Amino acid sequence: MKYDAIVVGAGQAGPSLAAHFAYAGQKxxxxxxxxxxxxxxxxxxxPTKTMRASARVAYQARRGAExxxxxxxxxxxxxxxMERKDEIVSNSRNGLTxxxxxxxxxxxxxxxxxxxxxDNGVHQxxxxxxxxxxxxxxxxxxxxxxxxxxxxxxxxxxxxNVKLMSLSELPEHLIILGGSYIGLEMGQIxxxxxxxxxxxxxxxxxxxxxxxxxxxxxxxxxxxxxxxIHTDSKAVSVSQDDNGIAVTIEKNGETNTVTGSHLLVATxxxxxxxxxxxxAIGLETNKRGFIETNGKLETAVAGxxxxxxxxxxxxxxxxxxxxxxxxxxxxxxADRSADDRNMAYSMFTDPPLGRVGMNxxxxxxxxxxxxxxxxxxxxVSRAKEDGELNGLVKxxxxxxxxxxxxxxxxxxxxxxxxxVVSNYMATGxxxxxxxxALPIHPTISEYFPTWLGMLSEPE
Length: 459
Prior knowledge:
Elements: E1 5-8, H1 14-23, E2 28-31, H2 38-42, H3 45-62, H4 78-101, E3 106-109, E4 113-119, E5 122-127, E6 130-134, E7 136-139, E8 143-145, H5 161-164, E9 173-177, H6 181-193, E10 196-200, H7 212-224, E11 228-230, E12 234-241, E13 244-251, E14 254-260, E15 262-265, E16 269-271, E17 304-306, H8 317-331, E18 344-347, E19 353-357, H9 360-365, E20 370-376, H10 381-386, E21 392-398, E22 404-410, H11 414-425, H12 431-435, H13 448-453
Parallel strand pairs: 1-2, 1-7, 2-3, 7-17, 9-10, 9-15, 10-11
Antiparallel strand pairs: 4-5, 5-6, 8-16, 12-13, 13-14, 18-19, 19-22, 20-21, 21-22
Helix pairs in contact: 1-8, 3-4, 3-6
């Protein structure tokens, strides 16, 4: 079967790209062996943020008396929580599937694809029992949970991000290996559902990618909600019996054991490139298994593109979709590059953490002359009014060019607030223009002129 383009993977970049080419009159093949929508729709963003919403309602209900609202005892109907999650996920996946199936010129293959060779610039792939070929192939196959080398881990019934979404009962005690974004989000969610939660993190602090003061604030919030934290701790072995799952951890040469009902392994992700048989076309990955690309998302093999998590340019739904937009526009004659974007992301704890560009440590290490501002959430009017006093905000600008270098918005609505800076950074304009803008009161973002007036040279 000959096509103008083959798209492998129906995550966040693949479907829109396949549809764009098909709408343009090209003959397109889309191969997906898993569920339409990829991790985001089925195991990531959609289900976890749906569960987060339920957890936040429970959290707010328990705080009702603080606001003069008496709610009585709060009980979690976990089956209802998961039913609501499943319905939203199903509707999203079915909507995507129905749309793709309605598109002319688009053939959908419900199987995994791998390369079998290249002939005069035409790439062949096998999908099930069928061989298809095209000069252009777009890879959007995503990542899966990393399995750390822990003694006897394979002998216990542990959870990853996929299995977690299929729980039928609320864990009595959820042990989480990994104190980064997934571990922290799910730890807080299940604690608010009523589970006892223990987080074990190998690094000296939680969310180690962030500045130390941000990590400290995260830990303070988590501990304040009743989560047990073990940082600088290595899980060396696990076992399971009728009493549950036991994790032996080592810290400073000493060992102790944590026992719980369930174990979630959230220690990172690995790319799904190992199933593509890239050797057949002479395409290599780096040591971590990612496919390196140029700014246009082209690989070292002509006609092969890598989009989304597998290119190592950001393991997020929004970076994957942005990759699609770059490839789409360049195909239509534009000159866009992924090298030009400022990385932005959020951790959807409560409060959510928003990040764009550099943090303080990175800015200091860059050698630039910088201006820095730090402000605690408890000193922001809207946060006081809403009773959301946890968190902080940090802004960093280049003292010479007056451009933003980065922002951390760990505050209520921080996932939206950070996009004020993210969008502004795309203009390259001086921060002084934003400082003079008219804000809307009472909001979190109204503080930008105030915050920018607080910028000073770091000590």
